[in-house]
């Protein structure tokens, strides 16, 4: 008899639900915690993501993607804070959180009153994490696992992306995608702590925050993190000319003290 088919995200969801139901006590456990800079949002995060990852790989018997979803990244925390402090940005809008990880930014958009929130991430564990974290915060967020970055800009009014410029390939695909969304009339906001592949000359800062760091392998307890939007009228990174920036009519706002 054939075994029933299960999707990677369904398998990951079953694993996370089991981990949440029977939490351990060591560094390799998940805990439901208030996000340091966004205490309105509680997330199932790893006590130590590296140790959790090692245990899960040993149990699975094969390599698993790094559990980015098990930490609240500085860029995502700033962006989530920004949406909650300026709910008019998301209220009543269709929001897409790209590379959503834990779903922190998506959940903040839902709490801010978004009409519909979709969280997208290619890691099936992140898709599962979005599901359990949305549930923990009693908000509706649809989680999806397709890779959208080479597609046309999706049907959303506001695109948000926290901490997505951490590697060359990702950055090289992300910015053109975001600019296609802007050209189509969507608003776009990214949150970034100055990662190496941030295309600083193609983005304009909207706000900046001092964010407590909780992610692995960061020594400083606090990082300055900017919320930025694609610069209107800058060169198109795909063609090197013209304007793919559109008007992206986001209001400027001051720093949070
Ligand atoms: C550093 S984490 C940021 C997570 C979250 N936005 C935050 O700020 O906490 C980057 C995320 O990008 C996801 N990712 C990588 N490539 C992707 C792609 N092509 N499409 C969607 N997500 C992707 C990873 O799986 C990971 O969850």
From TrEMBL:
Sequence intervals crossing the membrane: none
Name by which UniProt lists this protein: Methyltransferase
One Pfam family in the UniProt entry: PrmA
GO terms assigned for molecular function: protein-lysine N-methyltransferase activity
Organism per entry: Micromonospora haikouensis
PANTHER family: ELECTRON TRANSFER FLAVOPROTEIN BETA SUBUNIT LYSINE METHYLTRANSFERASE
SUPFAM superfamilies the record matches: S-adenosyl-L-methionine-dependent methyltransferases
InterPro entries: Ribosomal_L11_MeTrfase_PrmA, SAM-dependent_MTases_sf
Keywords: Methyltransferase, Transferase
Chain residue ranges for the region called Disordered: 213-257
Keyword Methyltransferase: yes
GO biological process terms, semicolon-separated: methylation
The keyword RNA-binding is assigned to this record: no
């Amino acid at each position: 008899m054939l075994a029933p088919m299960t999707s990677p995200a369904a398998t990951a969801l079953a694993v996370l639900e089991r981990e949440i139901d029977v939490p351990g006590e060591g560094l390799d456990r998940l805990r439901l915690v208030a996000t340091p800079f966004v205490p309105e949002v509680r997330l199932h995060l790893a006590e130590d993501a590296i140790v959790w990852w090692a245990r899960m790989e040993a149990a699975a018997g094969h390599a698993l993607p790094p559990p980015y979803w098990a930490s609240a990244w500085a860029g995502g925390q700033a962006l989530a804070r920004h949406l909650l402090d300026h709910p008019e940005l998301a209220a009543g809008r269709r929001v897409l959180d790209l590379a959503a990880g834990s779903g922190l930014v998506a959940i903040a958009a839902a709490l801010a009153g978004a009409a519909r929130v979709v969280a997208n991430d290619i890691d099936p564990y992140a898709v599962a994490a979005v599901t359990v974290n949305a549930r923990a915060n009693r908000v509706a967020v649809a989680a999806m696992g397709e890779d959208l970055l080479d597609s046309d800009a999706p049907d959303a009014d506001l695109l948000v992306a926290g901490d997505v410029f951490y590697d060359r390939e990702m950055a090289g695909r992300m910015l053109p995608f975001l600019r296609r969304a802007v050209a189509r009339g969507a608003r776009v906001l990214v949150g970034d702590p100055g990662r190496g592949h941030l295309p600083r000359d193609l983005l304009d800062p909207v706000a900046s925050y001092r964010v407590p760091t909780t992610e692995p392998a960061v020594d400083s307890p606090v990082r300055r993190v900017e919320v930025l939007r694609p610069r209107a009228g800058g060169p198109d990174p795909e063609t090197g000319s013209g304007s793919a920036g559109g008007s992206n009519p986001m209001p400027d706002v001051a720093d949070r003290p």
